[in-house]
Design goal:
heterodimer, A: alpha/beta, six-stranded mixed β-barrel, 32 helices, disordered N terminus, B: mainly alpha, 17 helices, 69% helix, globular
């Protein structure tokens, strides 16, 4: 089209020319007035027919573009403004997350209706405001793109009514036989409503059976209590009352019911200034764990040798006949326990045999600890039974063809059941197999019906904490994929198939809440706990006699080297249910620092004897079955024993978890699910690379983690300062940064830190930190802004383990700021070392020059590389999502700082101490991290920094970090210490 | 040959040459019709490697810096190693042209032209790396102080900004110096070219040079001034490059010996590269008359002298790490010697300290191919030195928890080898299209020149 062609007016030149504006008068804008095709054609230099042809083609083409459906984006105002939603302001709702039947209370942050972050609920007894790694990572599971998204029957999509009618049919059939042939398999049920529903169903159909199975069960706890007291009982620890604690292979600071509370209580009594209250922890363990790392004395014993040890302690404290030859350790422990009657505590590990639990009860009883440091209550799960027996019964019945319908409510028994039970084989004999699960997993592959399970953040339910305190689980969001809860599936079997879980939960609590129901219900939802529902401690008969030696631990004849294998739930992906969770897969395991894999853990000496090296693939032969797994040498592991975590080796987990690691369940047996003797290790000659986040384990004589014994601390309170030279702050030629109204700082108490990793996941969730995958981790490109360094000291056979959480030090004299050529990292007036992502060109000079190496670089476009569209909902809207080629690092959660500052400014006051809580601080169960304002002389961080054990990491470089550490102070038993030094 | 090898005095130009023979000899390489086979092969290899580099760079831009081996403790890898290596190589040219000109070392005449060309091409390779190694290379211009609406400037305390100035100044001055020096020769080529296109192109490049006394006067003035400007750059560029490390806080970087020892190292590496190029070139183009043993011997002496300075630098570094009393420094040195990269360190010692000791012997200094091997080894050694400085300092610094290893990927190698190919390709283009030895300056060396008092600055001894 020629633009020079004069645009003639449409009508005759004689007609008066009207104009609306000056532009129009002078020619511009006239086209708008004319619309006939002829004129358009003329303007385009075409005749009318041609123009119509072109128009036709372009309309047809326009129609073609409709083939790619454009996303519908509607901008519609609220017809009814939802209550309390202010765009940009998050809301918090109380709910609870259950794991293996025990609840942790959470407050979940919701941005415009989408949950983005979980925090602990301070009112909840199992949380006290803290969270663990699983509850932090739960959000990831909610948005996991691999969640099952539709009801399927034989892999074909079906609607919920179709499922309901199928259920009705099955139910009618079952009714005719009084429920004979109907079986329900659940995981541990801690929900009172679900329990009531199940029991009601069993009442209605007496022939039906309810089975429970999950791989990390508490069978041995109940059996131990039964042996001691004649009835299963919950053991509630009161760590805050204990002066001396003995852990018998119990990782009670890392997992198990109420572990967050135990950590809080444990670390609260480890303040060096408060010598009287300083507790002492002895840990006997096979696999190095968090508890052993925190212990003042640790003894590496094979799991099967723990019983002998426990018996000798029992004998020495007078709880039974003295054992043959107690070792020094047992003697010292017993002495210490005896001198703290009523103020000591013996804890047995969940996967130790029942006899150990009975022994622990006996020792606690004879020391007068029962009712003091350890309480007994009714079991929290609705039915405390032996799950392995329950599973075996089910499999036997299935084998006999007595099961017509099996409804699996959650869990993945095909993957998790022990190898010798033969679940999958028997399962195929069941006529109708129904699975409710969050993912299309190994079990759903063998089922006729699969119903997507609603995530707990999408469901109404209830749950109990370790002490029985009940919470209402309330949803934060409507089910993303139309998921159903176990309540709803069970309701489908009842007379009220259309009852929602909300109705069911309300119905259950209707007559159980005191006072006006609506008020009490709202109160319960608001608080996250139902007041007064904790179980009251029971006084049980004290165990009279020691249990007989357990048969499951045949001690091999001395001299013959028999290898023991130990199966434990994985510290990050648990029993495999978090196998598709990128955050947890990439989370370094607390002690080994491995990511994305499990491995056979061996003691250095055992590996040497078998001439095995790290990453060597071996064949594990155990009781006639074998699998292959790579070797990882773990200092401090018990000798002649191997640990393999179960949960890995999933075959249908999703895009992240499938085919990762080795399946320990293929070796587990029903008789000894925690493992036993008789392992053979055969070399295969192959290697398999494992990805760790820390390759060097010793401090090389550098004063990084500074530690002393309580006694040394009393003699040299400033020992941490004496360990390295630190220049005075004014030893510089340059003026220091002018102090603004605030001066942010952080103090991390190494004495409190257990290395549990909750802060790492919390940081990842809060700050939109991507996970990068195994290959990138092994290339040293993990992105965690906060990492936990783990160092060993002492002999590799039983080293002392030190943890050091490492966020950005926010140096006042930051080496990174100086070298950035574009000023992308600058110092804020409040002392923060700010990263300007927009400005970063990616020279990586700052990272090179950071002595702490806390800066992390986006070598690829990580933020989208591993992110499906659904994961975008997970992002914290207050934090920028970073691009490829940009440096990033800890910001002290600057978004939280600014939020608090804005709030304070609006109210015309300063930010108060404790008002800003960083994500890591909030998650920490040990209160190891304190953040605050140096300008406020009353703040907790100032108080911490003024303690004599406060020191700066690499302070001798003159970086003047704002993050400081409180040195470790341990409380070893002088008797044992003398013994140890004599030996060395 | 043998008697000459023994003799002390070798002229800078073999006897028997006249103005005409010099001009013919050098200009015929450029204007000759036939392209020799070795040229085609050499250029072909260089070109192929350049294409490989372009592929690697394409992948790098498309996928991100992750295709390289750099990681968390080792944020700089091959890119910075190669950058410093190429910059170092780029030093000899200016040293030869400027400093030796000012010192009236007339033997520089036959080697300065291609040494300068080598400088330019080496700096061009070096200049690629700082851009390639950025996480977001399309924003490289943010390192320049350009006026913008947001009033954002580079952060002038960062040595990387100094680098930008140092390297770009150096590249500019080197280019000018080289080009100005070419003008009289370009006029010669214009006058001797037979083909129209060649006449036009050389004519334009000669900028109307007619060889009048005024032209010569201005030329000499300009050249001398440029030499004066270029001289401090020889010292400043590598000093600034060494600041990239010395400003850092990392043990193995934070050292005050770096500036002098980097400059010496640059001259060392640069002269090694000049020898690496000159020795095959004089054989292939039969230029032994112009690049005589005198040149080779002199360069060998410089190589030996700078090699000793570099060796002194290493010793001081090791001594200081002990003397400093800093456990980090001590560990760094110990780690270099015995850590996972021990082979690189000892390879460096072998290449850079042991090998040049052979240059104490006149017989080796007078043996072109022996010299060539030594020069090659020194080139390798200088690369290893940069690897030791960049990688072994970073991979184990302060906190053992963050220690790691650096392994280059195939894209690292393709880029590195690719820049060598690019350099070779450019150099082959240069020798085909421009006189690799200064014709007019060589003419001043022949005996005839003594009869021409108009120019007569130089007298043969």
């Amino acid at each position: 089209m020629s633009r020079d062609r004069p645009l003639l007016p449409a009508y005759g030149a004689e007609r008066p020319r009207y104009w609306r504006s000056l532009e129009e008068l002078h020619g511009a804008g006239i086209v708008a007035e004319r619309d006939s095709a002829a004129e358009l054609a003329e303007a385009a230099g075409l005749d009318r027919r041609e123009l119509v042809k072109y128009l036709g083609v372009s309309f047809a083409m326009a129609g073609l573009t409709a083939c790619t459906r454009q996303p519908a984006e509607k901008i519609v105002p609220y017809v009814r403004q939802p209550e309390e939603i202010v765009p940009g302001k998050p809301l918090f709702f109380a709910t609870a997350m259950s794991l293996s039947g025990y609840a942790t209370g959470l407050l979940v942050e919701s941005h415009m209706g989408r949950p983005t972050k979980a925090e602990g609920n301070p009112l909840h007894p199992a949380s006290l405001g803290a969270t663990d790694t699983f509850s932090q990572a739960a959000l990831y599971d909610l948005y996991d793109p691999d969640r099952s998204q539709s009801i399927t029957y034989l892999d074909e999509i079906r609607a919920w009514p179709a499922f309901l009618s199928a259920m009705r049919l099955a139910l009618e059939k079952a009714r005719t036989k009084k429920g004979e042939g109907l079986r329900i398999l659940t995981e541990t049920v801690g929900s009172p409503t679900l329990g009531a529903q199940l029991l009601a169903l069993l009442r209605e159909l007496p022939g039906a059976r309810w089975h429970q199975w999950e791989p990390n069960n508490r069978d041995r706890v109940w059996a131990g209590a039964s042996a001691a007291f004649g009835q299963p009982a919950e053991t509630v620890l009161r760590v805050d009352r204990a002066d001396v604690i003995l852990s018998l292979d119990a990782d009670f600071l890392a997992c198990g019911p109420g572990h967050l509370r135990s950590v809080r209580e444990f670390s609260a009594r480890r303040r060096p200034r408060d010598r009287q209250r300083f507790n002492r922890l002895y840990a006997v363990e096979s696999t190095p764990g968090v508890t052993g790392a925190c212990a003042d004395h640790r003894l590496a014993l094979r799991a099967s040798d723990v019983e002998a040890f426990a018996r000798s302690v029992a004998g020495l404290v007078g709880a039974g006949a003295a054992a043959a030859a107690p070792n020094d350790f047992a003697r010292a422990v017993a002495e210490d326990l005896k001198s703290h009657r009523g103020r000591s505590l013996v804890v047995a590990g969940d996967d130790q045999p029942a006899a150990i639990h009975a022994l622990a009860h006996a020792i606690n009883a004879s020391l007068g600890n029962a009712g003091e440091t350890v309480l007994a209550t009714d079991p929290v799960p609705v039915r405390a039974e032996s799950q392995i027996d329950s599973l075996r019964q089910l499999v036997a019945d299935m084998d006999k063809g007595q099961v017509d319908t099996l409804i699996i409510l959650g869990g993945n028994p095909v993957f998790t059941s022990p190898a010798d039970v033969g679940f999958a084989r028997a399962f195929e004999k069941v006529a109708l197999r129904i699975h409710l699960g969050t993912h299309q997993d190994e079990t759903s592959a063998l089922c006729h019906w699969h119903v997507p399970e609603a995530h707990f953040l999408e469901s109404w339910s209830d749950a109990r904490a370790f002490d029985g305190t009940a919470s209402i689980v309330q949803p934060l969001i409507a089910p993303l994929y139309g998921g159903k809860t176990a309540h709803e599936v069970l309701a489908a079997l009842s007379d009220q198939p259309e009852f929602s879980s909300h109705d069911l939960v309300r119905e259950y609590w209707k007559d159980k809440l005191s006072g006006d129901f609506e008020t009490a219900w709202r109160r319960a939802l608001h608080d996250g706990v139902i007041a007064g529902t904790a179980f009251s401690p029971k006084s049980l008969p004290s165990p009279k006699s020691l249990p007989p030696s357990s048969a499951s631990a045949p001690n091999p004849e001395p001299g013959a080297v028999s290898l023991e294998i130990r199966f434990r739930p994985d510290p990050t992906i648990y029993d495999g249910r978090f196998g598709n969770n990128g955050w947890l897969q990439e989370l370094p395991k607390p002690i080994s620092k491995l990511t994305w894999d499990n491995a056979v853990m061996l003691a250095p000496k055992t590996a040497e004897r078998l001439s095995l090296a790290n990453e060597e693939v071996v064949k594990l032969e155990y009781l006639g079955r074998s699998i292959e797994a790579p070797v990882w040498i773990l200092p401090g592991h018990a000798e002649n024993a191997a640990t393999l975590h179960f949960g890995y080796g999933r075959t249908r987990a999703g895009r992240l978890g499938t085919g990762v690691g080795s399946n320990a369940n293929a070796l587990r047996t029903a008789d000894a699910p925690a493992g036993g003797h008789g392992l053979q290790i055969v070399k295969t000659g192959r290697t398999y690379s494992l990805a760790t986040t820390q390759n060097h384990d010793v401090m090389e004589g550098r004063a990084l983690v500074r530690s002393a014994t309580l006694e040394e601390f009393e003699r040299h309170p400033k020992f941490a300062h004496e360990m390295a030279e630190e220049p005075e702050p004014d030893m510089t030629m340059y003026a220091s940064y002018p102090r603004n109204e605030y001066a942010w700082a952080m103090a991390i108490d190494l004495n409190a830190c257990t290395g549990c990793n909750a802060c790492v996941v919390a940081c990842q969730a809060e700050n939109n930190i991507p996970f990068v995958g195994k290959d990138q981790v092994s290339r040293g490109r993990a992105m965690h802004w906060l990492r936990i360094d783990r160092y060993y000291s002492g002999s590799p056979d039983n080293p002392t383990t030190h943890h050091q959480p490492l966020p950005c030090m926010q140096c006042e004299n930051a080496p990174c700021e100086l070298v950035c050529p574009v000023g992308a990292t600058v110092h804020s007036a409040e002392g923060l070392n700010d990263m300007v992502y927009n400005r970063c060109v990616g020279t990586r000079y700052c990272s090179n020059n950071c002595p702490y190496k806390v800066r992390h670089f986006n070598f690829y476009h990580y933020s989208t590389k591993f992110r499906a569209p659904s994961m975008r909902m997970l992002a914290n809207p207050d934090v920028t999502v970073r691009w490829r080629g940009v440096m990033e690092k800890c910001t002290y959660c600057v978004q939280r700082i600014n939020e608090a500052k804005i709030t304070a400014e609006k109210r015309d006051r300063r930010v108060r101490d404790g008002e800003i809580v960083t994500a890591c601080q909030q998650a920490c169960p040990a209160e190891a991290i304190v953040f605050g304002d140096l300008a406020d002389s009353e703040s907790r961080v100032v108080r911490r920094r003024s303690t004599p054990v406060n020191y700066s990491l690499l302070g001798e470089l003159g970086t003047r970090p704002r993050t400081t550490y409180l040195a470790e102070v341990r409380n070893p038993n002088p008797a044992l210490l003398a013994e140890e030094s004599k030996r060395s | 040959m043998s008697d000459r090898r023994e003799s002390r005095y070798v002229p800078v130009i073999e006897p028997g040459h006249t103005f005409a023979s010099v001009t013919d000899k050098i200009s015929s390489i450029v204007l000759g019709r036939k392209t020799p086979l070795f040229w085609v092969v050499g250029f072909g290899i260089g070109f192929a490697l350049t294409m490989g580099m372009l592929y690697a760079v394409g992948v790098l831009f498309f996928r991100g810096i992750g295709v390289w081996g750099v990681n968390e403790p080792v944020g700089w890898g091959f890119a910075i190693v190669n950058f410093v290596w190429w910059i170092g190589i780029g030093h000899a040219g200016t040293l030869i042209s400027a400093i030796l000109l000012l010192l009236r070392q007339e033997w520089r005449t036959s080697i300065n032209r291609f040494a300068e060309a080598m400088t330019l091409f080496a700096v061009a390779q070096a200049g690629l790396y700082p851009i390639l190694h950025l996480g977001r290379p399309w924003l490289a211009y943010w390192l320049l102080p350009y006026p913008n609406t947001m009033a954002l400037w580079p952060q002038f305390r960062s040595p990387l900004v100094w680098d930008v100035f140092a390297v770009s100044t150096y590249a500019t001055v080197s280019l000018l110096f080289w080009y100005v020096g070419l003008i009289p020769d370009l006029a010669t080529l214009r006058d001797r070219a037979k083909k129209k296109t060649a006449q036009i192109i050389y004519g334009m490049l000669a900028m109307g040079w007619r060889g009048s006394a005024m032209h010569w006067h201005r030329y000499e003035m300009a050249y001398l001034l440029l030499a004066g400007i270029a001289t401090p750059l020889v010292v400043s560029v590598h000093t600034v490059v060494s600041f990239d490390f010395t400003i850092g806080i990392i043990p193995g970087w934070h050292s005050t010996i770096f500036p002098p020892y980097f400059v010496a190292g640059a001259i060392y590496g640069g002269f090694a590269m000049v020898l690496t190029i000159a020795i095959p070139l004089r054989t292939l183009y039969h230029l032994e008359d112009f690049v005589t043993l005198r040149h080779l011997r002199n360069m060998a002496k410089i190589l030996l002298a700078t090699g000793l300075i570099v060796g002194y630098g290493y010793m001081v570094e090791i001594f200081m790490s002990w003397y400093s009393g800093s456990p980090y420094e001590k560990y760094m040195t110990w780690n270099r010697m015995t850590g996972p990269y021990w082979a690189v360190f000892w390879g460096l010692m072998l290449c850079n300290i042991v090998t040049p000791q052979f240059l104490w012997f006149r017989s080796i200094r007078s043996n072109p191919w022996g010299l060539w091997v030594i020069a090659l080894i020194v080139n390798v050694g200088m690369w290893l030195e940069r690897f030791v400085i960049v990688v072994t300092s970073l991979h184990r610094d302060y906190l053992p928890s963050s220690w790691g290893m650096y392994f280059p990927t195939k894209f690292d190698w393709m880029t590195y080898v690719g820049t060598i190919g690019f350099f070779v390709a450019l150099f082959f283009l240069f020798i085909r299209f421009l006189p690799m030895i200064s014709i007019f300056e060589m003419r001043t060396l022949v005996p005839e020149a003594e009869l021409a008092p108009a120019d007569g600055k130089r007298k043969e001894p």
